[in-house]
Amino acid sequence: MDTVSGDRWRGVVERTWRPAALMAALLVVWHLVTVTGLVEAYLVPSPARTFELMIDKWSYLWGHTWVTTVETVLGFVIAGVLGVLVAVAMVCSRTIESTAYPILLFAQVIPKIAIAPLFVVWLGFGFEPKVVVAVLMAFFPVVISTVTGLKSVDTEMLELAATMGGGPVKTFVKIRFPAALPHLFAGLKVAVTLAVTGAVVGEFVGSNEGLGYVILQANGNMDTPMLFAGLIVTSVVGVLLFLLLDLAEQLMLPWHASRRGAAVTTLPAKGGS
Amino acid sequence: MDTVSGDRWRGVVERTWRPAALMAALLVVWHLVTVTGLVEAYLVPSPARTFELMIDKWSYLWGHTWVTTVETVLGFVIAGVLGVLVAVAMVCSRTIESTAYPILLFAQVIPKIAIAPLFVVWLGFGFEPKVVVAVLMAFFPVVISTVTGLKSVDTEMLELAATMGGGPVKTFVKIRFPAALPHLFAGLKVAVTLAVTGAVVGEFVGSNEGLGYVILQANGNMDTPMLFAGLIVTSVVGVLLFLLLDLAEQLMLPWHASRRGAAVTTLPAKGGS
Amino acid sequence: GGGDPAAGGGGAREVTLTLNWYPYGEHAPFYYGVKQGIYDRHGIKLKIQAGQGSGKTVTATGAGQTDFGWADTSALATAVEQGVPAKSIGVFLQTTPASVQFFTEKNISRPEDLKGKSVATTAGDALTKTFPAFLKQNGMRESDVSIQNIDPAGKMAAVISGRTDVLLGFASDQGPTIEEKAGKDVGYLRFADFGLNYFSNGLLTSKSVLQKDPELVRKMVAATQEAWAQAEKAPEAAAESMKGAAEQLPSPAVVLEQFKTTLTLLHTDATKGKAPGVNTAEDWRRTIETFQRTGIITEASDPSAYWEESVAPKG
Amino acid sequence: MKTAGMTTTSASTSTVAISGVSVRFRSKRAETTAIERVSLDVAPGEFVSIVGPSGCGKSTLLKLVAGLLAPSSGSVALLGEQVRGPRRDIGFVFQRAALLEWRSARRNILLQAEMRGMNPAAAAERADELIEMTGLSGFENALPHELSGGMQQRVALCRALLHRPRVLLMDEPFGALDALTREQMNVELHRVWRETGTTVLLVTHSIAESVYLANRVVVLTRRPAVVQEVIEVGLPGTRDYSATMARPEFAAATAHIRDLLGAVTGHD
Amino acid sequence: MKTAGMTTTSASTSTVAISGVSVRFRSKRAETTAIERVSLDVAPGEFVSIVGPSGCGKSTLLKLVAGLLAPSSGSVALLGEQVRGPRRDIGFVFQRAALLEWRSARRNILLQAEMRGMNPAAAAERADELIEMTGLSGFENALPHELSGGMQQRVALCRALLHRPRVLLMDEPFGALDALTREQMNVELHRVWRETGTTVLLVTHSIAESVYLANRVVVLTRRPAVVQEVIEVGLPGTRDYSATMARPEFAAATAHIRDLLGAVTGHD
Ligand SMILES: Nc1ncnc2c1ncn2[C@@H]1O[C@H](COP(=O)(O)OP(=O)(O)OP(=O)(O)O)[C@@H](O)[C@H]1O
Ligand SMILES: Nc1ncnc2c1ncn2[C@@H]1O[C@H](COP(=O)(O)OP(=O)(O)OP(=O)(O)O)[C@@H](O)[C@H]1O
Ligand SMILES: [Mg+2]
Ligand SMILES: [Mg+2]
């Protein structure tokens, strides 16, 4: 028991020390670059000032962070569910696939900020337009990945399913979908980062709260410490959501080859009980 | 011979009529919606006016389209190459993977439009900042997909490669990379649409040319026909680039299951010579 | 300056001017000046670039990405306080075009009428920061109105659609556009008419250009003043000159309207009758005091911190 | 048309009725005729083995019967009904194990029950029975990549037997098993067949196995596969393994099949 | 420590020297001991067959020799060198064909040459020779999914033979082949072995095959696999197929192995 939890602990350290070291290195570079005047303060503030501000204003930042996080999560969940549904429809029917693709592409490629007036007029200034923008941004990677995943299922498995007569729904639930999960997760990971951006962009369009508002205002005031604080917090939200997904992937797909680690180095456990 | 080319022709019709019909239907809806005054002209122009404008100003639009297309393609290519290289490095070394991930995530999550002023200050109003934004936007999906792809190679194939002693480079070139191609293409497809958005967003920030310039200016003047013309052209650029990738995928991966079509319905050819 | 032998034929030196925004009526004199050869005559081959907000223009100017900028004085003041090495070389819009804009059907004629109204603003811009002072000046509090931050393009749509009652903007910018789009008359409450005036758009450059090539700056100021003076005399021709110079413009009627509105903003009482772009230190002081009072800057410095008087010909 | 004469007229009473079926695969490179005008009728409860050279079209034939492939010409009927699409009234063991890599051995077997909506408790009991029978006890919860090749094949076998199908199509189901296990499986399969009256079509490479288990052995030629001969195995219904092997009919049948296949001598 | 005595001292002259090797797999669910203190020496140019019940650890043993798995205890040496990682001085036929689905049959075979940087022209010639030998002619350009199970296996065989390896590790390489093709392959393999002096380790389920081909047959027990007995096959070097089968030594050896495996009777 002791050794197991010891192992686990060592595993956590193992996995975190490198990113932590990197972060520290980046902080040092940032510090040096600003202290030496290589980059001027009106462009990039010093880390000290930025973190000072973050501590001073943490409750202000926290309030806005919460708003953005809720929008992001909501947008991501909707995009995930919708994206999978659309992908399923596209895989089921060539007609749907060939008709839906152009619309999806269209919706994907349009710069969301350019249709801001439409959002403002149709959806107002509340919660909804931000969630909509987040959904629009996050939707496409989910669809593309899921379609790819659903289509790369082994054909023999599908033939087998057909002889079991489970029908399309059961075949989907028990075979196609689980087989597509590794692809789906790759799509979801991209999607969650885009959902964050979407929520922030949605806030750019029209909002009195959220990190987008903080960033925009800081930009207007040339308040670079606040701008960087906003950017850092935004990134942290994105990174945390991403890591949550990564964790979910590890829990749900222990079987997936990409989690099994490198091939050739597989060593059977030394010793035993 | 005749029948083959006939078949091919029928195939093209088969594949295009549905999207075309959908486009037509959308145009009709758009027309009706604007003609009946359901949506006001200051928000959505009529298709007739939009296309009229597109024809009138085609050389103007074409010039800007060309600029954006070049930025997009350049950004996409750089993001693709860099993304694959980074993914390879990440798959090769756990150290690189765990250190690079946070940076990548960070770079991905930050709203580009918020840091775009930095690009303008550092890189000016020219070509470069747009390409940089396009690269930043398109980079992440390529990395994520490639990593997933490279990791899902059958472990037994890798073992086999090890017994052939080809070394990591040959194993990569001949086994891992081809096996990852279906994943990679899914990533590239998302990336190319994001590269378009990236280039346009880059142009929003500071530019005298490109579709982002056209769109933002139209937005400022509430020149909705021009706005929609810009959006349509942007989408067309995105869709065309996407289709090019799709074609490349079909040519390069004829073996991939997702291209082999549905399993159970595989029919051996009727008749013969 | 100007002695650079590599700088094009005819001795004209290529110079970039980055505007505060995409070209609209206010910028007509620059195009007019180019068309009339005024800049050429001063040895300047002027290249006009669109900008994306005064703040970015000031920063880009300070960083040397453009030779000259055309931007709002409040943005300049903020930037200077943050350490951006940029300086004004003459404010041309000495009366602020800042105004509350609305359809006349809303029956707003005094600041008090704004009570209970929703106001579309843009987060972080100068108007939004001076608006509370405008309200206070007129015996109102911020809580009397509801503020809504919206993207610049969304602001106009919000007012036309009725999502908000009024917007904060430049009288020389949005007003004529929404009037045309909605087909309804637009009314203005100009800050300047209700006891709050400060400097608006003007010409600026970086400290390094000022230091290295004061001669070029002098030429630029002189040429610009001349261009504005000429344009003032022939507003139609000036507005006309924009046609073709920039493809995507508001309709000619809107451009003219915008420019005519601009012309009403060129002078304070102190500079009446002088050439456009000639400022007085007293006016500068008053503007700086206002900026400090409204929180655009935290500490007021001497006008010389923001304004290089030496390059401006006394007119 | 020409093949009509070869079709027996008992189609309506046959469990499997293959009449004049040809299959042509067309790929970019070439056209392969896998099966050429093959006709075969299998009576209810009959056990038919199919042997033939590698690549001749045996797997193709089974897929035809299951409705996973459509013939280029000719027709197939199963249980009196024309085969037009995948049929669920069968149990199919593929040549490859085709297991879901994220399901344990037991849950791979139970997939059959889940897909058919069988009673879970009954299915679980049946699964345990089959796991016991195939010697997989102790590995119920192992994932496919933790199983040996032969174990994977046995899981696939259990899966096909779980729902006691009326028709069993088996494509080389014992190929990855050692001799002893294979014999045990043969005996078990024979018992299951005797007890349940299932109709079985078995593709095998083992001549002994084909004769031991079947009522009839169909010998196919090289590609394109044509039925070379159908051998009636005159062995008694209940077959003790060693006793059967010792019978002269057994020896005669295996020798004949070896000759047909052109084998130099009697190794399998 | 205890197993040291079991190790023969000829490690330095052996091509393969397995000494006191155990392999334990640990998964979340359970710990499986696949191999328990197995020792085996294979002399240069020797042909050793390995037989044993399904799931006993035969594949595991071959992977140990190839350096694809590290033993939990004990050590393995190949060609006089300790095995510490994957070894390239071998040819390996896996139990599954493991073909690259995007390469044609021929290009799958040539993968071996490309990975090793062999002379392309010579490799191509050799590939054609092997394709001819294994009866794959006409399917050189077919993709794996267009090949039958047996054909895929033959492609894998060709791939392993392409570079004329000094040591050949084969994991049930003929399992998906029909009796006739299997015999032909046996004869071919025997010829190749005779001519090249390759050292071969062959895992097979066919007792006849194991005896026909090998100098020695290693019989493993049920899991955890222990070496039950090593049978010296006293057959002459050059072996005519039918003549060999008819020899009394052959009959004796197969019967003995059947007994060891606990088979009820002589079916394989
Ligand atoms: N999808 C396909 N496309 C093209 N050719 C195919 C396809 N499937 C099978 N074939 C060809 O059809 C022939 C018969 O294949 P099949 O798998 O039925 O052989 P088989 O008798 O089962 O052989 P084995 O005993 O080796 O498994 C082979 O020549 C094969 O190449
Ligand atoms: N990766 C693994 N993780 C856990 N257990 C494993 C793993 N690989 C093999 N085993 C176990 O090791 C034992 C031996 O497996 P192996 O594949 O060597 O058997 P085998 O003798 O080749 O059997 P077969 O003849 O069926 O192929 C089996 O019980 C199997 O479950
Ligand atoms: Mg087959
Ligand atoms: Mg094995």
TrEMBL record, chains A, B:
<feature type="transmembrane region" description="Helical">
    <location>
        <begin position="226"/>
        <end position="245"/>
    </location>
</feature>
<dbReference type="InterPro" id="IPR035906">
    <property type="entry name" value="MetI-like_sf"/>
</dbReference>
<keyword id="KW-0472">Membrane</keyword>
<feature type="transmembrane region" description="Helical">
    <location>
        <begin position="64"/>
        <end position="91"/>
    </location>
</feature>
<dbReference type="Pfam" id="PF00528">
    <property type="entry name" value="BPD_transp_1"/>
</dbReference>
<feature type="transmembrane region" description="Helical">
    <location>
        <begin position="131"/>
        <end position="150"/>
    </location>
</feature>
<keyword id="KW-0813">Transport</keyword>
<dbReference type="GO" id="GO:0005886">
    <property type="term" value="C:plasma membrane"/>
</dbReference>
<protein>
    <submittedName>
        <fullName>NitT/TauT family transport system permease protein</fullName>
    </submittedName>
</protein>
<keyword id="KW-1003">Cell membrane</keyword>
<dbReference type="InterPro" id="IPR000515">
    <property type="entry name" value="MetI-like"/>
</dbReference>
<feature type="transmembrane region" description="Helical">
    <location>
        <begin position="103"/>
        <end position="125"/>
    </location>
</feature>
<feature type="transmembrane region" description="Helical">
    <location>
        <begin position="184"/>
        <end position="206"/>
    </location>
</feature>
<comment type="similarity">
    <text>Belongs to the binding-protein-dependent transport system permease family.</text>
</comment>
<feature type="domain" description="ABC transmembrane type-1">
    <location>
        <begin position="65"/>
        <end position="245"/>
    </location>
</feature>
<dbReference type="GO" id="GO:0055085">
    <property type="term" value="P:transmembrane transport"/>
</dbReference>
<keyword id="KW-1133">Transmembrane helix</keyword>
<keyword id="KW-0812">Transmembrane</keyword>
<feature type="transmembrane region" description="Helical">
    <location>
        <begin position="21"/>
        <end position="44"/>
    </location>
</feature>
UniProtKB/TrEMBL annotation, chains D, E:
<dbReference type="GO" id="GO:0005524">
    <property type="term" value="F:ATP binding"/>
</dbReference>
<dbReference type="Pfam" id="PF00005">
    <property type="entry name" value="ABC_tran"/>
</dbReference>
<keyword id="KW-0813">Transport</keyword>
<dbReference type="InterPro" id="IPR050166">
    <property type="entry name" value="ABC_transporter_ATP-bind"/>
</dbReference>
<dbReference type="InterPro" id="IPR017871">
    <property type="entry name" value="ABC_transporter-like_CS"/>
</dbReference>
<keyword id="KW-0067">ATP-binding</keyword>
<keyword id="KW-0547">Nucleotide-binding</keyword>
<dbReference type="InterPro" id="IPR003593">
    <property type="entry name" value="AAA+_ATPase"/>
</dbReference>
<feature type="domain" description="ABC transporter">
    <location>
        <begin position="18"/>
        <end position="247"/>
    </location>
</feature>
<dbReference type="InterPro" id="IPR027417">
    <property type="entry name" value="P-loop_NTPase"/>
</dbReference>
<protein>
    <submittedName>
        <fullName>NitT/TauT family transport system ATP-binding protein</fullName>
    </submittedName>
</protein>
<dbReference type="GO" id="GO:0016887">
    <property type="term" value="F:ATP hydrolysis activity"/>
</dbReference>
<dbReference type="InterPro" id="IPR003439">
    <property type="entry name" value="ABC_transporter-like_ATP-bd"/>
</dbReference>
